[in-house]
Amino acid sequence: xxxxxxxxILFGEHAVVYGYPALAAAxxxxxxxxxxxxxxxxxxxxxxxxxxxxxxxxPGPIAxxxxxxxxxxxxxxxxxxxxxxxxxxxxxGLGSSAAFxxxxxxxxxxxxxxxxxxxxxxxxxxQVEAIFHGTPSGIDNTVATYGGxxxxxxxxxxxxxxxxxCTLALPKFIAGFLLPLAEPIGIVVIQTNKDRETKKxxxxxxxxxxxxxxxxxxxxxxxxxxxxxxxxxxxxxxYRAFGDMxxxxxxxxxxxxxxxxxxxxxxxxxxxxxxxGAKLTGAGGGGCLxxxxxxxxxxxxxxxxxxxxxCFMASIGKKLTNTP
Length: 324
Ligand code: PMV
Description:
Elements: E1 2-11, E2 22-38, E3 44-47, E4 52-55, H1 61-72, E5 80-86, H2 96-111, H3 118-133, H4 139-146, E6 149-153, E7 164-169, E8 174-178, E9 185-191, H5 198-211, H6 213-235, H7 239-255, H8 261-272, E10 277-281, E11 288-292, H9 297-306, E12 310-316
Parallel strand pairs: 3-5
Antiparallel strand pairs: 1-2, 2-5, 2-6, 3-4, 6-8, 7-8, 9-11, 9-12, 10-11
The chain binds (3R)-3-hydroxy-3-methyl-5-(phosphonooxy)pentanoic acid.
């Protein structure tokens, strides 16, 4: 059995498109794949949670992903049935497609007894992401592969700070891996269950930006500074300041018009239920909100569930695999 991690963006989504830093974190939750039985031909994926079966010859991106990964195996194929299990929702900004890619690649490598390093896995996962998302930034597959906390930025615009432990070049950015936190920290993820498309939201921000760069550049720059400060606040357990900054980042994302009534209501409800801070995560327009309330996650989940929200607890900040 092999896992790919889900991700959240703590600070700096959209700002990162303009070169500013974003702070992403792997979740302790993700997607797992496991080989169920050998087959004489074809790889077949069974996703029992949604009653779905996909073979590599079917139409659609999941089948294409399966075909690509099978093609890239550097040896004769040993076919099998693969079971997929997900602990995170799909199409909600939590990096499910990247987590799936990494879990699938690792599972087929293990089944064929092939040793690949994390960089090879990450590169193939990026190609799988391209099947799902066209021209991905590479953040999701990197976090899904390596885990941990990761600061990403355009190296021409923003040099990596001294507290970054090691770096990795992605197609568009540099990823800087941060030291794990002494204790992983809890995050409550609230689902709006509203579908959204990252590309449309990125395009919307681009059209706002083009109409008035002088207005929007400082907003993006400020979100970038949150990404840099976020890790220091977490390491120093300055949780109140971290929570305040989540709220400020949510307000700036509202000014970029990427929030929506559901996310804003979830934000209000999370604060009323005792969260120290909350913000949308990822592109916005739906998807998920993250709420921060260290040590009181169960109470927060209980109160939000009472109001009708689907939510769950995850944790971030643990060293999940070896960084490059
Ligand atoms: O696709 P999502 O919801 O994980 O969001 C992507 C984050 C953006 O900054 C909005 C886009 C990007 O490519 O970095």
